[in-house]
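Quick log. Single chain, no ligands specified.
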Amino acid sequence: MEKARSLLGIETLSDDDIASLLQVAERMDVNRPQPLLAGRRIVLLFYEASTRTRVSFEMAAKVLGATTYLVHATASSIEKGETLLDTGLTLRSMGAEAIVIRHPSSGAPHFLQRYLDIPLINAGDGMHEHPSQALLDAFTIKRHKGKLSDLKIAVIGDIFHSRVARSDIHLLSRFGARIVLSGPPELVPDIAVTLAPGLTLTRSVDEAMQAADVVMLLRVQKERLGGMHLAVEQYVAEYQITPERMRVAKPDAIVMHPGPMVRGMELTDAVADGPQSVVTEQVHNGVPIRMAVLARALGAA
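-> predicted structure:
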């Protein structure tokens, strides 16, 4: 039963699970302590650096009354060569009742779940998934649009390397959104349309954004562009989101980004800080969503 309340990926959730988590998040008040998890012990096991995800999970746990323990890969026995399995077993033996894990290897949370009898929450595994980000993105869209179905969502940027893209696409396409991918072939290969039914791809960002309800940007690393021999200037010319490009989207379109944003390349300051941007709202919504995820994991939702 404990394992059944794990959050390993969007693919492993039913539509009812997703709808329930979004409903529970609506009832969560981030400004008022709610001792649903008073006395419970949650470990944040992070093998990669993180700001938004780690802090929002920690804040979510503390608003619910839980005690959190942060384990960094660079400040623990992990640095001495301890295996993921031994680390997980050690934390469980110490009394961890749930583990939130971020790991650079795809499938790491799934592997660890095979050996532990407590809930695991995937906070990002390699290039695979980032389920809580997809849930907060859906939560944000639904708050602005009142629905997820029959919306046109333009997803622009580095889709190939993005675990956020995979989770968002799995969730939003299942609930009836029409998703159009756009980016250079090196970052958005043709095979990307096989991620979910109904995806389409265009190399023209203006075409992708035409009459879009949501413009969802994904992080593009400058060093990755260099490794693929893509000039930053070329990316800016063809894919940077500017106020002029936003005019082809619907007037009430929202702009989203999981962060961290690369201003001046992925988008201009005018878009990042403009009235259509909901980027800071996404960050805020991460707390109630992760409160819902933790409450569900420990049987208090």
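The radius of gyration is 19 Å.
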